[in-house]
């Protein structure tokens, strides 16, 4: 455990939520998960504040994606309890955006039908579903041809369709697993802006896994920094930079300071 | 410019073969009785297909092949889905499937003859048997290799297991199913033609080739061979076209 004494001496974050955290939306208690013989999470507690954007960041293989997959029910917990404002997962509408949009959208349906399908699964009638998709398109100001099949679209457009598919059911929580990591840099910047706008307009709770610290801090209200496994909360700082954030934010003194601090914690955890 | 010219490149091979054939004919590489000139074979093909005996034999073979592939598809596709969806079940019968898939279907003729007697049924059933195994194998793998992410995506959107199966896994397996159907029909045609040659047959392209050879009507024999070739090639193209419009996303 202790390669460097000063690293080990730094105490871990002691609360399941951010220190000044508002009311929690998601509460994780006593989470335990192992793969084969490797313990990923043991006695793990976490609060995700309501209506905030939380970025998850940590060392490689610490289980960042596993965490949101456990919370969203994509993989089963070994033990523990996850609640959404007191409700179980079954009673909660959630949206999930996969990293690999190419394999997440259905290529046999047009982009439009892909989004409609999410509503049909929720027992919404077809006319109403189509109506709601049109509304969402107008609301987001999306200017792509949704009659196309996904494989005819650029990566960014496909991921935008994925996000719309997740949003159309008006989820209470939106999970995003490294949603932009398969996109080129230009598209990534554009998609970050889109996501930020969606967040500001809907105010829904969002949880984003990122492997890019700058992206994690740029988008977040809170950055959840994880340790190596078994995963613990290393730090959970609030990012006190005004929104909407833009190119100027990257040079903002507070942003730069918080990013540096997060990096320091991250490096401490990598060495620990 | 070159692309336009390249379109006609396949003709080079066709004319090359015809020229080579004429050359062989004129220099008497083999007895002209065994190798008639191309125009004699072409004439026999034309006359045979335009209301001659070859045309009715051609139709009989088409019907048998289509009957075989239909039977094979009706049995193998549902079975392949069930096996593919239960991977342990598939592993349990995998050896049997692979074994009989590797067995030359022609080796099954005597067995099927004993069971179904000499007649259309034996020919169709042996062909269906061979094609079914190919289709089964492909469908099962198509189902098993359905993209995990798509299944998870449907699951997280609240799809029931039944809807995941129907809306996602089934669609995911379609491209592989078509590969199976295409390979299956090629195999079915081979088996039908062989069956028509030997097991108490009175019609079909295989019978036409065989009879013409026995009677030393060589132009007719070549005509029947080309008719069989055109049939195989045509079936493949038809299936490719169906595939392209049906599973437009395949390979994308």
| CA-atom Rg of chain A in angstroms | 19 Å
What's the β-strand tally of chain B?
A: 0
Q: Largest chain interface and its two residue counts?
A: A-B, 21 and 21 residues
> What would you call the structural class of chain B?
mainly alpha
Low-pLDDT stretches of chain B? none
The secondary structure category of chain A is alpha/beta
What is the beta-strand fraction of chain B?
under 5%
The fraction of residues assigned to DSSP E strands of chain A is 15-25%
Low-confidence stretches of chain A: 1-5
Can you write the helix and strand succession of chain A as a string? HEEEHEEHHHHEHEHEEH
Largest sheet of chain B: none
Give the overall shape of chain B, derived from the CA principal axes: globular
C-alpha end-to-end distance of chain A: 6 Å
Q: Number of DSSP helices of chain A?
A: 9
CATH homologous superfamily title of the domain at 1-92 and 173-178 and 205-272 in chain A? P-loop containing nucleotide triphosphate hydrolases
Oligomerization state of this entry? heterodimer
Distance between the termini of chain B: 28 Å
What fraction, in percent, of the residue positions of chain B are helical? over 70%
Lateral arrangement of strands in the main beta sheet of chain A: 5-6-7-3-8-9
Q: Write down the CATH topology of the domain at 1-92 and 173-178 and 205-272 in chain A.
A: Rossmann fold
Total number of beta strands of chain A: 9
